[in-house]
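Cross-check.
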Amino acid sequence: MDNGKAIIFSAPSGSGKTTIVRHLIRTCYYLDFSISATTRPRRTGREINGKDYYFLSLEDFKKKIANNELVEWEEVYDGNHYGTLKSEIERLWGIGKHVVFDVDVKGGLKLKEYFQEKALAIFVRVNDLKVLEKRLKHRNTESEENIKRRLAKAEFEMTFENGFDITLISDKLEQTLETAEKLVSEFIFQNNS
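Predicted model, tokenized:
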């Protein structure tokens, strides 16, 4: 468990961090995904409890906060809380995996602070907010009002880019995935000696 490391991917919504993380989980045997806890409703037919998120009631989430069972947590959008369960990290490190996080920007900075030298914090971004808007619309999961809210939040989140160890531009998919693999393997294996 002492040898476990944390790879943190943070980005404004729609920047491509989830695509990158899913690719790394499929291709890097030494990584596994940290499943976040959330109080937001499950997207019907698209998300599975215990696979995409641990979907908790607000009451259960608050109990976990009170019992110090979360590494970090945040109310990301009004009424929707997200957090990282300590038990999830222990589970993954216990089976010899390094942990990969797919979290919002504030969560990423909190995780970086918590794990310190055991963490590589990667900020994923696109070159232009118009690209982000197009990606969010293409999802077909958000109302026009929610897209505007997410874009405003994205603009704010980009101001925290310098708090991360490295920035990964999510532009050309294959190149982005290749760069992500290289960054992660160098951190895991070069710092293991």
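Strands lie at 6-10, 31-33, 37-38, 54-55, 70-77, 80-85, 98-103, 119-125, 166-169. The mean pLDDT is 89. Passed to J.P. for a second look.
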